[in-house]
Amino acid sequence: MQHPPITFRTLIYGLGDALGEVHLPLDQQATEPCALIASSALHLTLARDTARRIYKANGCRHLGSPIDADLTLDALGRLRNTLAHASTCDVDQMRFIDDLAGATVNLLDITAEPAT
């Protein structure tokens, strides 16, 4: 079943609801992708980098641009891989990315395709 496209803004708002105010506080007045994440975020740089990567990977032109599930998850996977190989990575950052990815899967209503 085909679902209507979700926008970048809707995804970020949904992630904010799923992860909570401490991890992903949102600035409702923001007009730029990174500015959606308020400066009080627990992992501010990582959260804003994640938003920027999703926005860029989807070729978004504005916050209301539709996003693609595959492109979004690919961006999260590449970020996780980069983070996992960084000497400054810690377990809390990895948990944040994993939680973000899980919430993204839920929000985009992604189900595994049956094996053939």
Task: Give the strand content.
Answer: under 5%
Number of beta strands: 2
In DSSP terms, counting alpha (H) and pi (I) runs of 4 or more, how many helices? 4
- Largest sheet features: 2 strands, antiparallel
Q: Mean of the pLDDT scores? A: 90
Span of the ends, CA to CA:
19 Å
Q: Give the CA-based shape.
A: globular
The main sheet orders its strands as: 1-2
SS-based class: mainly alpha
What is the domain tally?
Answer: 1
Uncertain runs = none
Query: Can you write the helix and strand succession as a string?
Result: EHHEHH
Based on the model shown, name its key terms.
116 residues, mainly alpha, two-stranded antiparallel ribbon, 4 helices
Structure description:
The chain has 116 residues and is mostly helical. The protein has one domain (6-107). The chain contains 4 helices and 2 strands; from the N terminus they run βααβαα. It has a two-stranded antiparallel sheet. The longest helix is centred in the C-terminal third of the chain and has 17 residues, at 91-107. The radius of gyration is 14 Å and the shape is globular.
Element layout with pairings:
Layout: E1 6-7, H1 8-19, H2 44-57, E2 66-67, H3 69-84, H4 91-107
Antiparallel strand pairs: 1-2
Helix pairs in contact: 1-4, 2-3, 3-4
